[in-house]
Structure to design on (230 residues):
């Protein structure tokens, strides 16, 4: 997930990370992240470990001591690399995946006094998943609700104990050849519900049965959708 602290024309550092997500489990409670400076100037990077939840379908982050990231602050020379080591400081949950984010943020440096643009600070966020001690899986149930503006709110509730990353999905309506498609690229954490608001093709009946077909980080999925009206 890429987040910009400010927008506008600016002097901005550029760095990349690998891998783009981390999974910890069992005896494997440490991982390594490689940060590369793609810029021609040195960068000062700060690393923070965050707890990750989705109350009300919104992304929420808070400070946590469950993860240790070292070094927490470092300087990257132009074209240079830094290894960041990530360690779990608690036991995995017995029956539920634990979800965190590792935030790597550029610390803005002073710019030339003649610079007149905005200073952009680049931030990259890496998901960290700690697998449960017991085998668990995601389990999504889908609902759709018609809105007064004739759009459709589609919601996925994860009643399982592990995340699912939905990449895209399409809705098919009984009695119609029309299809509503969405490219979403969003995680649904255990115990969470997330929603998308879609435009619906003209001519689709509100009482038509709906099925959903999509792709995720765990393969393709298909399900009937429970539909309600305004």
């Amino acid at each position: 997930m890429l987040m910009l602290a400010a927008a506008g024309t600016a002097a901005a550092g550029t760095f990349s990370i690998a891998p783009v997500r981390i999974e910890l489990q069992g005896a494997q409670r440490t991982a390594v992240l490689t940060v590369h400076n793609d810029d021609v100037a040195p960068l000062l990077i700060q690393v923070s470990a965050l707890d990750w939840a989705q109350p009300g379908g919104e992304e929420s982050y808070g400070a946590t001591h469950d993860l240790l990231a070292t070094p927490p602050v470092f300087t990257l020379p132009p074209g240079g690399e830094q290894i960041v080591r990530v360690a779990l400081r608690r036991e995995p949950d017995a029956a539920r995946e634990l979800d965190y984010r590792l935030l790597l943020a550029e610390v803005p440096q002073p710019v030339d006094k003649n610079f007149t643009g905005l200073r952009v600070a680049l931030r990259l966020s890496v998901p960290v998943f700690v697998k449960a001690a017991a085998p668990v899986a995601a389990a999504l149930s889908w609902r759709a609700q018609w809105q007064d503006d004739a759009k459709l709110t589609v919601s996925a509730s994860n009643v399982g104990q592990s995340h699912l990353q939905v990449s895209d999905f399409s809705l098919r309506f009984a009695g119609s050849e029309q299809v509503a498609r969405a490219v979403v690229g969003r995680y649904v954490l255990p115990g969470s519900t997330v929603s998308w608001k879609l435009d619906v093709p003209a001519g689709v009946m509100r009482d038509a049965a709906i099925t959903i077909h999509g792709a995720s980080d765990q393969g393709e999925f298909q399900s009937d959708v429970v539909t309600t009206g305004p």
Q: What stands out?
A: Residues 1-12 have pLDDT under 50 and may be disordered. The chain has two domains: 2-130, 140-228. The chain has no helices and 18 strands. The longest strand covers residues 43-53.
